Task: structure prediction
Amino acid sequence: MKYKATYEIKSRGVRAEDAEVVVGKEGLTLGNIFIDYADLDTLKPINHRVMLSLHDRTGIEISMLGFSYDGFWEELTGGFGERTLQALFVEEETIMKCEGEYNYLPEGMTDREIGRGNVILVSDAVIILPVSSHAVRIPLFYADSIDLDGYQITIRMKDGTEYKIGKFGYDTMPFFERCETNFKKTVQRRQQLLKSFVAEEPFTYTGLFRTIQDEEYWGAAFGQGKAAIELYTKNDAATYLYSFEDKERFIRSLEMAMEAVGSHRELIFLSDEELNRKPVYRMAVHRSSAVRFLRNCSAGRLIHKKDHAEKLKKFLA
Result:
């Protein structure tokens, strides 16, 4: 939708009054300047102004919206949220969607993400959508416990990370009950699936992508500070190689990264140049520290040719 407003980008010496501002599905257009949602870090409403911060620390102020302010903010945050869901590759059916409070520490950050926003329950995950680039998809398979204390739900992960959500009004208890039920179903179902998958030597460690991809999994082979990952899917014809220092951290990040990418496994090997041409993929990588870690550990690929076994053995030695 189109709006009339004043916008200012001080670092670029840009200011326009009574200018056309358009909220779209992929980003925001200020006059002839397009801001992709992938480049947005934070969105804040302050005294009937909208303050935007980009990843490169560029600040943008939008004001003088008049009576259109509320509608503009709702459409902007709605568009940003929908684009974020695309970047989190949410393909599962929504079970519940509530507006409430959240409190968690994004991995690699020093400041906690605290506020109110949409919290969504799907069959195998809980999604928190703050008005920032720190949205998170919490995979229930890697949760250790889910507890309710008053109006606050705490999801505690196996690595000790905690996510606090709640104050959904009358929806708090139904959300908790359905979350707990899907947590148990997801764990039981995945454990059964993992037992049925057999990887061939040297790929002795197996894992899953997501619940909805029942027949696709991955296997890992380890050497000293090295790993080879084989994707057991319909169309993958390469083995992915990695180097690392901490094996425990690598395995944890590998599991979370494979969960995060879903069916978009090219995310783990695309070059930075290719990645920059795909805004949704850029958003996805930014929202998953595990995917970033895995990409940083990359040591190349081995195409499935006659000398594949020999080269793999040499790499892992």
Summary: The chain has a mean pLDDT of 93. Residues 91-191 form a domain with the PH-domain like fold (CATH 2.30.29.30). The chain is about 30% helix and 40% strand. The chain has three domains: 2-84, 91-191, 205-316.
